[in-house]
Amino acid sequence: MTATHLASSQLADAVGGSEPPADADALVAERAGRAREASRVLAATTRQDKDAALIAIGAALVANSSRIIEANAVDLRRGEENGTSASLLDRLRLDESRIAGLRGALEELAALPDPIGEVVRGQTLPNGLRLRQLRVPLGVVGVIYEARPNVTVDIAGIGLKSGNAVLLRGGSAAATTNGVLVEIIRESLTASGLPADAVQSVDDGGRAAAQSMMRAVGLIDLLVPRGGRSLIQEVVRSSRVPVVQTGEGNVHLYLDADADAARAVPIALNAKVQRPSVCNAAETLLVHAAAGETGAAVLTALFQAGVRLHADERAAALVPGVPVLPATEEDWATEYGDLDIAVRVVDSLEEALEHIRRYSTGHTEAIVTDSLASQRAFIRGVDSAAVIVNASTRFTDGGQLGLGAEVGISTQKMHARGPMGLTELTTTQWIVEGDGHVRS
Amino acid sequence: MTATHLASSQLADAVGGSEPPADADALVAERAGRAREASRVLAATTRQDKDAALIAIGAALVANSSRIIEANAVDLRRGEENGTSASLLDRLRLDESRIAGLRGALEELAALPDPIGEVVRGQTLPNGLRLRQLRVPLGVVGVIYEARPNVTVDIAGIGLKSGNAVLLRGGSAAATTNGVLVEIIRESLTASGLPADAVQSVDDGGRAAAQSMMRAVGLIDLLVPRGGRSLIQEVVRSSRVPVVQTGEGNVHLYLDADADAARAVPIALNAKVQRPSVCNAAETLLVHAAAGETGAAVLTALFQAGVRLHADERAAALVPGVPVLPATEEDWATEYGDLDIAVRVVDSLEEALEHIRRYSTGHTEAIVTDSLASQRAFIRGVDSAAVIVNASTRFTDGGQLGLGAEVGISTQKMHARGPMGLTELTTTQWIVEGDGHVRS
Q1: pLDDT tens-place string over residues A193-234
Q2: SS3 category, A75
Q3: Is A284 part of any domain?
Q4: Which residue does chain A place closest to B241, by CA atoms?
């Protein structure tokens, strides 16, 4: 899962606040140049060799568990000294079982088809020209991300499988762990006969390195910010390198007129409570006026699960015994990332769609209904990366949707939309073969 | 074919130079809002109805030929008075035969498959969740373009077929013609029962309207600049709306060691001379040292066709009797857009690839060879939108490659690469259907 919020101190840490010194520019340029060379080798590497390298990296991580855990202990100790919250420390922690999970993710990537070389379209034209539109790697992909060190391994793996070299800039909270992970990955690449420079960190460039990445036009093909809202906004606003905007999720769950409590309650609990900090957690509940009883059951269950309800007057009236906060305009637009939910009663599916169009960030919207007509109208009316029918919003996730790991969840329409897996790190190239053809 | 160079006066005309007044912002916002409404209708319109509308528009253009030609005469007269060159006037001119061509292009679009609703990927997951990744329209597409009025019809047609509403900002040189074309298209849309606001011009907003389009974040989903280098650079630099960079073409033609003159001469002539102003015309000729005889034949033929040769010393030595200009560093980087070509002798295919990587704008590169190994190395080594083997570079064109008309030729890697037809004006949406599924 991609986006959890950075504490503001982490944000400052991830992207810095001032102009980068020339040496960060030089460092990024130098590594991006080596990444470009490595990307040429990767682009021509067979699936067989890439998969073998992924499996070897997984084995190397497990074989070096104690080295990783020692490095991780340094980050954890520093985190504790800095008063980092228990939940952030937990996200930062790597143990034997989590390292085995990293290996498992790499093995899953190895099992997925290779996107590179896919013939996306092809035909022989009436004049005999032979056309193929081939899927090819982007080249050099930069990622600016937050503390969780498993992201380092996920992105290295997705990059390798999709034939891209990656430049990584992680948060300093995980710097020691990330440093060791990158070392192990690079050693393993070398042992597999692939260029180590396919995976490089620029963490030693300090805060300025993130700024330098954003200026590296022509050196970095795509920059993906992976983190909380402020980090993403800062990168989208500042970067001159192409960016895919990820992870901002003001996610809506709509209970249609016929929504059944037996279905709606577990979905709402899962969508809001299972992991409230992530981008695919629900932030607003819209209840059709005819589904008042189901709405009441859902609100009661959420309240009992510790969720603060920010309700409009009609929603509050559904649960007279439950304490609620009054919903304001700001609530409709807020991605809480916490155990809070905004609640509104609407008179029709159309009114729900209007609300969603106004406040959605284009990530995920879900409907609970048994009506085919409502399902169809909801799918048509929602302009978001994912539309979910009768399931939890938490399924908008590369792993859950069968893409393997993910680089992030795109909330934009250009290039990639929704979870970004292997295909989303590719572009295409037209190959035109003739026999002396000229245009008349 | 997309990009021909704007005279600098036309550039100033197309994008303006100063801040837009508030009323241009308001005009663009108001029309983009209506376009959004229209796009919702188009997104749900069946292929059958879209194709019927395309055919009806073609018929309406032919039926209104005299109205179009009268309007065109106004633009032509103004152009003559302003001293516009004969070639630009020719590009501006519409007559019965060209109007019939416009109709033909719309009918070709109608014959193409509908990209909307295509299931790009789909599966049922082990847990029973049903996934489909559907192709959907982008929504509202803005195009800022140059004088040729047929672009107005092409883009309206591609927009309609791909379910997108379009906002058009054409150059003032063709303003009267464009105005009448948009009127006829809108009348025809209404007669077909589709929203007229699917096709709107903002030409009446003056130069400021282009600037306003670039600021219309959230109102316009994609902005495509279609014209010469300065127009494109200005839009890429200034726009806060997502832009696809199009049309800059420093295109290379490489004659491999075994290149045969019988094949190389016609390809080089076609690539350079047929229409030197367009983006897929060749700008640099690279000749393998072992192909000196073929190189000499090609240079002689180009010279005889009126092409000015900007040659390095070794290339000049191939044609001792032919006057050449000395090639400078600037020549390698120049897209002449005219009867000029830079020529260099290289010692290997690898040296040609290095030259191309250094100076290419990522549009199109071609090789003339009979060697499978060279073909393979060239395709692998070139990082451009199109790689052409034994054919003219002029084939990088949406119409030629079977995409129907094109919005432009993308030279970037994100979102779309190469000629942008119907598919390139779409995005995708994940539809996830469950039966009360929650994530564990």
Answers
A1: 999 999 999 999 988 999 999 999 999 999 999 988 888 889
A2: helix
A3: yes
A4: A414
